[in-house]
Structures are given as structure tokens and as C-alpha cells.
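Build the 3D complex.
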Amino acid sequence: MAVWDLSVMVEELGPEAPALKVSVTSDLHVGGVILKIVQKTDIKKDWSDHALWWEQKQQWLLKPAWTLDKCGVHADARLCFTPQHKPLRLGLPNGATVSLRACFSSPVFRSIMGICRLLNIRHPEELSLLRPAEEKKKKKDTAQEELYDLTGVPLSAGLGAVVTLSDGMPAHFAESPEAEAVYKMLSVSQPAPAPETINKLYRPTSVVEKAQVNSRWLDSSRSLLQQGVQENSKLLLRFKYFSFYDLVPKVDVVRLTQLYEQARWAVLLEEIECTEEEMMLFAALQYHIGKVSLTEALVTPSPAMDDLDFALQCLEVKMDGESSGVDMLESMTAPQLHDYLKIFRPKRLTLKGYKQFWFTFKDMSISYFKSKEESFREPIQQMNLKGCEVTPDVSVANQKFCIKLLIPEPDGMNEVCLRCENEQQYSNWMAACRLASKGKTLADSSYPSEVQSIRSFLAMQRSVPGSNDAQTDESINTHSLVSPRYQKKYKAKQLTPRILESYQNVAQLSLTDAVQRFLQIWQALPDFGVSYFVVRFKGCRKDEVLGIANNRLIRIDLGVGDVVKTWRYNTMKQWNVNWDIRQVAIEFNGNVNIAFSCLTADCKIVHEYIGGYIFMSTRGKEPGETLNEELFHKLTGGHEAL
Amino acid sequence: MDDIDAMFSDLLGEMDLLTQSLGVEDVRPPSPKKEVNLSVGFTDLNESLLELEDNDLDALMADLMADLDATEKLAAEKKAAAKDPHPTLENLHLPSPDHASVPAPPLPPAHRASSAENEEQAKADKIKLALEKLKEAKVKKLVVKVEMTNGSSKTLMVDERQTVRDVLDNLFEKTHCDCNVDWCLYETNPELQTERGFEDHENLVEPLSAWTRDSENKVLFREQEDKYAVFKNPQNFYLWKKDKKALKDMKDKDKELLLEENFCGSSIIVPDLEGALYLKEDGKKSWKQRYFLLRASGIYYVPKGKTKTSRDLVSLVNFDNVNVYYAKEYKAKYKAPTDFCFILKHPQIQKESQYIKYLCCDDHRAMTLWVTGIRVAKYGIALYENYKTAVKRSSASSSWTDRINSTQSTPSPTPKAKAANGHPLPPPPLMDVLPPPPPDPVMPPPPPLPNKGGLPPPPPPSSVTKNRGGALPPAPVEDFPPPPPLDDGELPPDFMPPPPPAAGVGFYLHGGEALPPPPPDPVGLPLAPPPPGPPPPPPPPPPVGAPAPRPVLPAKREGPAPPKRTTPGLSAPSGGDFMSELMVAMQKKRVQQ
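Done.
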């Protein structure tokens, strides 16, 4: 058989070096070619990650047993001998960028599995990569983004379990302080961004703009290099399928944190619409999560620690058991608050205003007397606060500390306003009122922390008016917790009490609970989990919007934004893609057929979305079930995969 | 004297019988009250004790005895449990199974302790016991009169830790009803003309405590089809926009899927209701039409001149502090456009007030949709858990009633000697297990039923149900088929998303060989009986005279309802006082006899 020269570029020989000429025959297999190349370069190193890339055909030659002939390689081919894993800059949901080695030769689906393994995110099938939006040319690219480097971390080849340390951190992060810092970035939510930062970022304003983002998803069934992604270029990692399977806080620290970050940015950038009330709750939760993140880890799992805690508890109980009943008696007598406060009842149409009385807070009710000396007599009035509504009416600047109470009574709500003298008094009484409204007494263990959280919120209000000097942990700009729409609508001092109002319902949540609550509210929004595409239905003359969610397809009027029609997947019989005219046709039960072409995105992306959601719904209930990669490709691959 | 002793022991037996929690067989002959429908009024203790009927008193007495016994035992146990990792007071109140075997008046633990060498210890124990009792005495208890749909009533003692579920179970015991999931406790307020079914997870005492002294409110025990309609026919709520025929023909597996999508995810999905409702303006008499939307965070409306995009919506109310109530005959009362009204109010509010939100729907269907949607938004997963518990309860007891019926058919004047000393408070632990028959020395074990259909179960509530069927149109009740044996009611394992397919460019969703294995059945659902009108298990024999169609309004009832003066009021008895009063009352009874 004829011997001919195959020219191969080898990066290790330097960029200027001429292509290597290797003498081959057409029946030589790829493995043999690689062996010859390695011998010829005369460089001693680990070549195991290298493979042949056929530039002109945009193809990897990955099957070592295939002959050149079978691959279709002839003398005119220019091959490239290059590593399969290359560094990639990855934008994470939390906005940080991490540099890591990703696989450029396997289908993107598998590359993502590798990336998620490295980052310790379970269920990689829910995520995907997309190209960053084309940024408008800035005059000077001064702002150098902070880059976290993980390229030094070796990718474990096997599919075995990731070894985790006692605190839930995978072992591969423990190798250097830098890697540990990366893990902290991944697993702890980021501090609130400055309001200006939010304002500067791109916000979609219409459903058409929301559809644009979906044109940037990479194809899961082809490799990165095939899709023109170069070494060191930037891609974004995002949750693509909004069907989050088996979220377990204990093992999903990074996943939960990044999901929260993605949700938070979606809310801040108005990618998903919410009402004002919902926004205030989101803001309160962000504030709370930010604050608690400083002191509390998302999970403090380590079984050893659990045991220790348990042992300590037992010990405490034992000690308790041995103590005398006197202690129990003491613990059963409830603490009380006493003070002179001013009261005002708007309901009575008097002009009298605030009047001072001696107040006593006991259990869940407030009683007041003419004076301290009279306090042993019958109170003038006693108010049971259980189930009441408590609203603050506070202005630190004007030294106004009022507690507004709406106390339910058989014939309506009793409106009462209590005025305190100072912050200290206010915090104590406010905390007591709030606990009582939820049916808890002063003796409840959460009382001190409630007092503390009210104080820190007051501190926040104090520091807001333009004083940037005292930026402590506790003083953050409330404007950074809401989307630009509400930044414009409200001044900071109007916003703070609104957020505070919502905050009182979440202040006692642990970090994990707060993050989960945030996600729950996000998932309960009506528009949650819908990915939009502008399409043209067959037989229609105007553009319309197709929304794809985890259980249904939605046809939306582009002008008004109304839902025209909904089709659920469980009534779907089959769907087809005509790759020539790039049209998606779907058949539903009852002989319902629809067909459309996609205008804002390639129809492969739409096809992959539908197939992907079907795949998500087939995931089994058993934990530890392995990912059925083949099925995913069958459902999403289109003609390339088959 | 002997007589009294005999009576007393008889009484004790009776008490035990009554307090047996779930799972203990009751072999009394069928109670003379055949139709079971309860209503509850509750009464001021001091006044009403004398009025109580015999068995009411007995039941109360039993409840109390059990309480006290339990308290004492607790103290004893506490010492033993010192090695227990978490002996918090709370779970000490849970009776361990061996309670049942302890004879009624247990040895006061103090005795044991005092015989020990360490006197100090004994003293400490005594103090603890005293404290436990103190604590027990602090537990608020109410005597509640529950009105049945036939106008009769049952009186029971409810303490503040008991949930509505516990009380329902208690009532199931007492009434031998079919225990289906529709049974609920219903609160009516004649002043506001409202009614609301208590949710199973709520504590009963709390809402009742909000009643005023002169309140004419009542608690009814009755079947309410809308209680769990959202789980039986989720499509009516989640796909309400679809046409009615499609909804009616919905397949079971599609219903399962809907439930899974909306209730089994990490977040509960609220039905996306929207539409025009009439709102009675605060304090005004007029009703104004507005476009309302239901979201998980509350009810919103579209302000004038705005669109229904999220950012423009105005919040009417969130559900943290309010409950939703059906309102009756508001056309007459408030000049409402229709009689399909509901209100949102704080449970404490008992009278007309500007703080109540009055809403009016076009038709009955819309009203059911909104009220149910609001319940889903307010209670979330708790509602679904309640439903699952109720289903378990009803399926457990249906096979159970079979057995009871068979037992009852054997005429036997057996003395009611039962050795169960139950603690009434905590929910019975064996909700899902078919309880074994109690050890009964006299009675032979119930003969196995060869043919389940053998006992023709007359569908007695059918007349009642039909009546209500008129009032609650969705899910019409057809004639009852003979109850299918429940054990056989296994669902075919195919209610999963159709496995995706394979070959070709097309993706066939049905059929095909190279399919992925369908995921296993959802956990916890296999028991759910999906047909719209769940076939009732054999219910108690029908009333002798077939009940005449009853007016829908439960408040007005005919028949022999004893017009009992209900003086509702709270009583938070301090243990000792209450006991002595009760004893006095019982003695009086005895004298009368």
C-alpha cells in the first residue's frame, strides 16, 4: 500500500514550528498515527490526553482502531494533535468567573458532567452552557474581572464517588488555599451587588428580549471545539431545565447556592416578573441570607459533629434531669416587660394624641395601668396579641419609634399605636409584640435574636442616608435588594420599612431554610420556568411566542402577552423535526397537530428543550440512579446523534 | 352498695371502651342513633354538665381519668427514661404502647420512689410530679358539642393539643360512620352567615376559642365533597380553563401526574385562577367588579387602566392572617350580585366589620375554584398531607367496618369488658395498619368474611349525599356501586409520563420497544382512590324511616334535635376543680337512677 505524508500540527513544538510530516499508509489506524507522531516529536511527556482534530472537517478522530481510510483522511488533510482538555473561563450563576479545564472533545453534555463533578454540583443534566451576550464595545476594557483558577485541579477520570471531607467539601478543593477559596465562593452566596451594578446590567424588557437569551445555548450533542469554542474563551454555566430533582441541602451545597444565585439575579434583573409584595419578600430573604451567611455555613453536616452534638444534648438532658424541680419552676415563670409607653388609638376620633401609661407585657398580652403604682390593680385594658398584625412606624432621623398593632377582636380589628422613647425600648417591645403575634411568649428562645435583628435593621436605616463612611456588615443599601424598577419607585428610606415588614416573617429562618424559601417563592411565580422562543406557526402570518416549561408548551400572543393555548406533554404523541426546512411538528392526542419554525433560535435548541424536559420527567425515584446519557442524546440529539 | 360498685365497674368498662383509641374493636350493639351526622356546640362547663346525657358524661369522665392516669405514669416514666436521649416534656406525653396494658388506676409512682433509699430523690420526684400535674392542668380543654346532620349531637372533650384529625377519628369511633375522606368538622357562624370546614391539621380549640360568649356558632360533623375535591379531581382546578368534557374524561394517570406536578415538587403550585369577581368595598354597601388573580403570595386585582402584568397588580390580601369562609345568602343580607360569595377574615373576627373582605362570584363553580385555590395557597403541602392521612384512615377502617358489621350481626349480650386504657390525646399511632382485634376473652374472634359483598351494604348516606350533590355540582354522585374490596384496588402501574421513544427522526411518545423504564409509582399515592365518587365502605344500617330530603342549610334542621341550650364559653379548668364538679354531676345522675 502506498505510503504518503500526513501533516500534523503539534502545539507542543511551538506556534511557529512547521507541521510535522508523518509517513503513513491508508490502512494505518489512528492509534498508530498518534504513536508515530509522539515518537517523531521526541518530547517526553504524558500524551494521554492528546487526540487528533481535523480542522477542515471540524471533527475529532477519537476512535483509535479506525483506519485513516475509514476516517476519510487523505494526503490533503491537515490534522492537529492537541489536548482534549483545555482551559475554559466559566461564568457561574453567581456572577463569578472560574477558570477550569473542560473537555473539548466529548459532547457538551458530557463536558458539563465533568465540570459539575469538579464544582461538586449534582444532576448536571439540568445545567448547560451558553455563550455570553455580545457586549457592546466598551471604549476601555479596564475592569479586569476577578478570576478564580481551578485549572490546576486534576480532573478525576473515573466515575466513582467524589471524596468529600468532613465539612462536605470535596477533597480536591482541599489541595491548596486557592482552591479552598474557590469552594467558598461556590458554596456561599455572594454579598449584595451595588445598585449601580444592577442598573448597568442588561435587562430584558419584553418577552421577545427574553427569547433572545435562548438562542445562545450550546448544542449538547456536539463538542465544544466543534462549536467553535476556543481555548480560554468564556462561556456561562446556567441551570437550563427548571425541574430540580432531589435537592438535598446536605449534599447539594454548591448546587443550592448557585441555584439561589441564579434565581436572585433573575429577580433583580426582572427576567421574571413579580408583584411588589413578592419583591419585598425576596429583598427581605436576600438581606437575611446575606447576613446569616457571614456567620453560618449552609450545612454543617459532618456525621462526627452530629454525634458530638447529640452526645452533648444527651449530657445536657441528663444534667437537667438531675437538677431539682426548683429550676423547672423558675423556667416556668415567664419573664415580663414593664415600662412607661405612650399609646394612641386612631379609631377613637379624638384629637388627644398619645397618652402615657404604665405598660406590662406578659405571656402574649399587653396590659396598661395609670401608673406604676397602680399596676397591682385591674389594668385599664388588656390586649391579647396572638394573631395580631404588627407593623413598625419608625424614623430614626426623627427619633420616632412606633409600633402599630392591629389586634383582631370579634367585631373587627382594634388599631393601637404604641410609641417608645428610644431604640432600646423599641427593640425590646417590638420583638415581644412580633413573637406574641406568632403565638410565642417572651420566654421563647428566639426573643434575644429577634431583638438583635430589629436593632441591626434600625442600624441599617441609620446608615443609609448617603453616609458611605460606616460600611459595616450590617449596613447595606436596601436598593441593592430590589430590581431597578423599585429602586426608581421608592427612596431608600421608604423601602427599608417595607422590607422590614416582610423581614419579620423570615428573620428566624436558618440559612438553609431561607435559601429554600427563596427558591420556593421563585418557583411559585406564575411565569417560573418558562423559556421563550419567537416562532411562526404554520399557516399563521404573524410572529408568536412559544413558551416551553417542564410540563407544557404555551402559545403566547406576542403583542398582548396573553396565553393563547397550552399543550401538556402528557397529551403529546410525537414530535418531529424537519431539518431541511427547519420546522418542528408536534402531534397531540385527539388529532391535534401543530408545526412552527423558530425565528429567534435554531430549531435544534427548541428540539433539545422539549426532549430535555421529557428526559427530566423520566428520571427515576431511586437515589443513586445513574444518569442515562444515551437516552438524553436520543431525545435531544436530532439527526446528528442517530 | 354493691349496686353502686357494680355500676362503677360497669362505668369504668364503658369509659375504657370510649377512650380506646383507634384500632380497638367496639362490640356494643349498634347504637340506637343510626344515622350519623354530628354537630357540635360547646358549652360552659359548669352549666352544661348537668344537662349532659349519660354516655356523654361517661365519655368525659373517661377522658379525664385517662388524662390524670397518664400524667402520673408520665412522672414515673420520666425517671425510667432518664437514659432516654431526649426526654423533653413534649414527647413524654406520648403514651407508649404498654400504657394500654397497665390497669386503670396505676400505682402512684411516688410509692415506688419512696421505698427507694434516697429520700431526696423521692422528694424531687414528687415535685416533678406536681409540676407535671400543674402543667397538665394548664392545658386548655373545651367541652364541644358536635351536631350530626340528623340533628342529634355528641359531646366530647377536646384539649388544645388535639388536631381536627384526632377529633374526627374520635368521632369515627363514636359514630361508626364509613370514615370516608369527606367527613369533616364544619364551623357555622349564623351572625355572619358563613361556614368553613376546619382543616385536619388545625387545632380545634384555637378557632373555637375565638367564639364570643353569646355566640350561636356551631360545629357540625358532616360530609363535604369539596373538602378534598382538589385531590380527587385536580384537573377541575388546575386545568379549569379546559372544556368540561375534557375534564370529565380525564384519565386517572393524568390526574396522578397533575398531583405530582403541583404537590410533589419542591414548591406547591397554586392553581392559576383569574377572573372577574365582585368586591364589596371597605365599609361601603356597593359591590364593584374587578379582575382578580390568585398567586401563591395572595389575592391581587388589576387596578383601573392597568394590565394584568405582575408589576401592576395590587394586593388585596395575603393569607398569613386570614381564613376563607363560604358565605350564605348574601344577596339578601348584603345585596350581593349573586349568592355565590366568600369572605376572607381573621378567625378572631366574629361580627360584621370593615376588616372583612367580601367577594362574590358569578356561579358556584367559580366560588369553589376560588375557595379551594385560596386553601391551597394558604395551607400548601399540609393540605395534601391531610388528604393522604384521610385516605389511609378511610381505607384502613373500611375493611375494619366490614369486620365490625360482621361482629355486630352475631347477637351477643357480651359484657363490655375491655382492658384498654387509652390516652385520648395523641393521634393513634396505627393509622395505616389494620389494627388487630382486641383481646376479647368472651367473644370468639370474628369469623372471616367469606364474601365481602355478602353483607349487602345499603347505601344509607345516599339520600343525604344526593341532597348535597345538588348543592355542590362538580362531581355528581351516581348510585353507589357495591363497594369494591379495597385490597384489590391496586392501580395499574402505568400512570407515568409516557416513556420516550426511539427510532427514526420522529419521537414517538407511545408504544415502542426501546423505551426507558417508566419510573416507579409515586410513593405514597398507591392508596388514593381516584374515582370521583368514592364508593363508600359498608356504612351503618340506614335510618329506619328514609330521611326526607333535608334542607341544604345545616343550620336549620328538622327532626328530633334536642333543643339544647348551648351556652358557649371557654373553660380552662384547673384540673382539681373540674374533677370535683364532674364527680358531683355524676353522683347526681346516680341518685336519679
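The longest strand of chain A covers residues 400-409.
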